Amino acid sequence: MLFPPFKIPNLVYADVGEEQKFDVSESVQNIEDDDPHIISPLSFSVTFLKAKDRIEGNFQHIETDIMVTCPRCLGEYQQHIHIPFCSYSYLLFPNHISDEDRMDSFWVDLKNNQIDVSEALRDEILLKIDPFAVCTDSCRGFCPVCGKNRNLDPCSCTIHSEEKVDYKPLAKLKDLNQSYAKKKR
Fold this sequence. Notes:
six-stranded mixed β-sheet, two-stranded antiparallel ribbon, 4 helices, about 30% strand
């Protein structure tokens, strides 16, 4: 996912506590195969707040629609994404930052006075995708015998289900307890 960077020339050298706000609704360019395939404009509000050695990016109401593959039938369907709030740090100067903070943060492009939020937004969207969601509640998936998509073509295969096993992992404890009680008498 490629999103245009935010130009923040006034904020880079501003006093601590200064902020700059953006309201965005823009189409994004899908660039990688593993990216979520975004099919509607990405909209959100972001406030960049100047701190001592970083700029904090506070994102609100990130919304978009993406195409997702159903794990049962492998068909694609649309999923709405809504992220109420997330926050990321964009570091200014590498000398003042601990190694731990470097790992969890992004960097401000000081040469161009801009912040690229593409990776942060991509991460948030990927975290919001439900890996167990299916295209519809009634999705029948593929037949395990012939491999047909049962949503499109009913098949005549008879699926032999294993006999139901009554799973009672603690049932033997009752028997052990009774036999122990008899031995005690």
